[in-house]
Design brief:
Layout lengths: L14 H27 L3 H12 L12 H35 L1 H12 L5 E4 L3 H12 L4 E5 L2 H9 L3 E4 L5 H6 L7 E4 L4 H14 L4 E5 L6 H7 L3 E3 L1 H14 L1 H12 L6 E6 L11 H6 L3 E6 L6 E2 L12 E6 L1 H9 L1
Parallel strand pairs: 1-2, 1-4, 2-3, 4-5, 5-6
Antiparallel strand pairs: 7-10, 8-9, 8-10
Helix pairs in contact: 1-2, 1-3, 10-11
Length: 338
């Protein structure tokens, strides 16, 4: 199986390590400086500590007590140490800032935060020719997408296309969790290997039993394997392309009309799938009432039953049923978002 990869620019030392090292050095210098005044010159702890503070911080106050040659030497050493701490602190902060920018860690944190805030998005595994098309269509319809891919160049293209990305093996639970699978509306896997797609589906189904999963079948006869792994729908791009070509050859007007209805949902005619939820605007209405409102019910999918095409006007809608509706895109979006 594919292994999870991380691309790093040099050793990845956490910022808290630098802070801890800086804190230890500063405390050590202060303790040694104060101890020197106390042991070498018999100063009181308060005088020794105050003299160490004003020396290391280079504030320029006068000496607490008169200093002999040895005292001046010790104070000079502490002054040099204080200057070194100041410039060293500036250097460490600057280096950490530059490394943070050049290594891409800031971009990774921003991306992870944006993904953590998503709800009802789609996790798309694989950003090849098929995956990029799927991502574009989902984005055009207002659905946020998180791209998961193990290849950095593919993720670079996805990022340039405006998508959120996660680098890693989509078959690993940690990668899917990072992509927000537990908050997602669905997962689409378009990897070019049926075996990898099966592993992704198994992992996703184990993490989120109720998740809608759509898988890509590459080889003939692999559809059943993806369904057995837990895919709700399986699509073969080659089979779909063949059907599409045949439809355009035999019924070009019908095919173009359906494409227009499914394209963006704008204009005077659109098709939409809407679920009847308990207490929602559709619950308890009749097909005739919807028709009077300019919404045409093409089919009803009852819970556990076959499609009912062209239902009668007195057919009453019940919670849990899925409707295939036609009407204006704006009106249909109101029902779907309700």
């Amino acid at each position: 199986m594919l292994s999870r990869l991380r691309i790093r620019a040099g050793p990845d030392v956490p910022a808290r390590t630098y802070v801890a090292m800086w804190f230890v050095v500063v405390v050590t210098v202060f303790v040694v400086g104060a101890a020197g005044y106390m042991i070498l010159f018999r100063w009181s702890p308060s005088d020794a500590l105050y003299m160490t503070v004003i020396t290391l911080t280079t504030v320029g106050f006068r000496e607490v007590r008169e200093l002999d040659d040895a005292g001046r030497v010790w104070t000079g050493v502490l002054t040099i140490a204080g200057v070194g701490i100041i410039f060293g602190t500036v250097g460490i902060v600057a280096e950490s800032f530059v490394r943070d920018l050049t290594s891409g860690r800031r971009e990774e944190r921003r991306m992870a935060q944006a993904i953590a805030e998503l709800r009802d998005h789609f996790v798309l595994c694989g950003y090849g020719r098929v995956g990029s098309t799927v991502a574009r269509e989902l984005k055009d319809r207002g659905n946020p997408v998180v791209i998961v891919d193990i290849n950095q160049p593919s993720l670079d293209r996805a990022r340039r296309d405006g998508h959120l990305v996660v680098l890693g093996d989509a078959a690993e639970d940690a990668t899917l969790i990072e992509a927000g699978i537990r908050r997602a509306a669905g997962l689409v896997t378009t990897l070019d290997s049926d075996a990898n797609n099966v592993y992704v589906i198994l992992s996703a189904r184990a993490l989120q039993p109720d998740l809608f999963i759509l898988g890509r079948a590459n080889a003939a006869g692999s559809e059943s394997k993806l369904e057995q792994a837990g895919a709700d729908r399986v699509v073969s791009p080659y089979t779909m392309a063949g059907r599409r070509i045949a439809e355009l050859a035999l019924r070009p007007t019908v095919a173009d009309f359906i494409d227009l209805a499914l394209a963006t949902g704008e204009g005077s005619f659109s098709l939409e799938e809407v679920e009847v939820v308990t207490g929602g605007p559709l619950d308890g209405l009749t097909v005739g009432q919807l028709r009077a409102d300019g919404i045409f019910t093409l089919a009803i999918l009852p819970v556990g039953g076959p499609y009912e095409a062209n239902p009668a006007d007195d057919r009453r809608l019940s919670a849990g049923e899925n409707l295939v509706l036609s009407g204006t895109g704006e009106r249909l979006r109101e029902f779907r978002s309700a």
